[in-house]
Amino acid sequence: MDLTDLTLFQPFFAQLAHTTLAPWVEPLAVAVRERLAARTHGDLMRWEAALAALPDLPPGRVVLDQAAVGLQSDQVLAPAIATHLRATLMQLHPWRKGPFCFHDLHLDAEWRSDWKWARLADAIDSLTGRVVLDVGCGNGYYAWRMRGAGARLVMGIDPTQLFVCQFRAIQHYVQCPEVTVLPLGIEDLPPSLSGFDTVFSMGVLSHRRSPLDHLAELRTLLRPGGQLVLETLALDCAEQQVLVPPDRYAQMRNIWFIPSVAALVVWMKRLGFQQVSVVDVTRTTIAEQRATDWMHFQSLPDHLNPADPSRTIEGHPAPLRAVVIGRA
Ligand SMILES: Nc1ncnc2c1ncn2[C@@H]1O[C@H](C[S@+](CC[C@H]([NH3+])C(=O)[O-])CC(=O)[O-])[C@@H](O)[C@H]1O
């Protein structure tokens, strides 16, 4: 499988061509081509070799509406196939988002991403029949859940090519042309792109150096009346406050702005979102984010102060995440 081969994305583009977003099919294809021409990761060929080596599996039920996305059945995979599948998927380590399942092989990722989905799924506009954009979608775990919740089409974008390869591994077995992950950052999208029914930005805002511009960009991507689902690191305080960590935050180098929930609401209203509401505020626990067999690196338990887990090891408030929705 060659990620730079645009025919990989054609089945999705063919579906998009039947929507009001049809005028952007060609500009999106050009954006993917230009992004991949400009930079491919040094490990891309190794990841592509892993994708090419994925074993055939017995048929199963495609499951997109339960915690573990993938192929389900009562079958126990033959030991040789299970070993081969595990080793091949491990070539795409670290698996940060999940869980996924391949018959009886369970891929337990660093994050219990299903928990976040459960916190927001019933609070947002129904996705049935909607054309959805997921900005910074990672390996596409949520894109599958959005399709499982009835979305007509889901376009994820993420510039991290490993995550795009992880998506292709799942797509290899799920075979659903209505869902894709394009190897793009938000800055690579055609400037006039607009018309999505729902746009998700989850875990991205605090990585942006210009968070208000990020919110404004998200608004232009929506059709009038479309819904933004914003999930981000936040501070638990009633006043408008913003933490700009002087250095790392929970060991992450690229955290710029962590607003209070109150500040987030004001930012969204100032940028013209209507019916802004906070649907969830939850502290991230070490049960939700932790190292597993599929993610061997350090994780949240290593990034909290052992003497006071309400603080990061740098002394900041420990991670708390808010989900805020609003309409364009
Ligand atoms: N310029 C960019 N444009 C778009 N995406 C970007 C950019 N730069 C980095 N990313 C991507 O943004 C994602 C942030 S993670 C959230 C994943 C998922 N949404 C989740 O909610 O679990 C953070 C977290 O785990 O909280 C990564 O996949 C990056 O590659």
UniProtKB/TrEMBL annotation:
It catalyses: carboxy-S-adenosyl-L-methionine + 5-hydroxyuridine(34) in tRNA = 5-carboxymethoxyuridine(34) in tRNA + S-adenosyl-L-homocysteine + H(+). GO terms for biological process: methylation; tRNA wobble uridine modification. Carboxy-S-adenosyl-L-methionine binds at residues 97, 111, 116, 136, 158-160, 186-187, 202, 321. GO terms for molecular function: methyltransferase activity; transferase activity, transferring alkyl or aryl (other than methyl) groups. It comes from the Bacteria. Its EC number is 2.5.1.-. InterPro entries: CmoB (IPR010017), Mo5U34_MeTrfas-like (IPR027555), SAM-dependent_MTases_sf (IPR029063). Transmembrane segments: none annotated. It is an enzyme of class 2 (transferase). Pfam families: Methyltransf_9 (PF08003). Keywords: Methyltransferase, Transferase, tRNA processing. HAMAP family: tRNA_carboxymethyltr_CmoB (MF_01590). Catalyzes carboxymethyl transfer from carboxy-S-adenosyl-L-methionine (Cx-SAM) to 5-hydroxyuridine (ho5U) to form 5-carboxymethoxyuridine (cmo5U) at position 34 in tRNAs. Belongs to the class I-like SAM-binding methyltransferase superfamily. CmoB family. Homotetramer. This is tRNA U34 carboxymethyltransferase. It comes from Allochromatium warmingii.
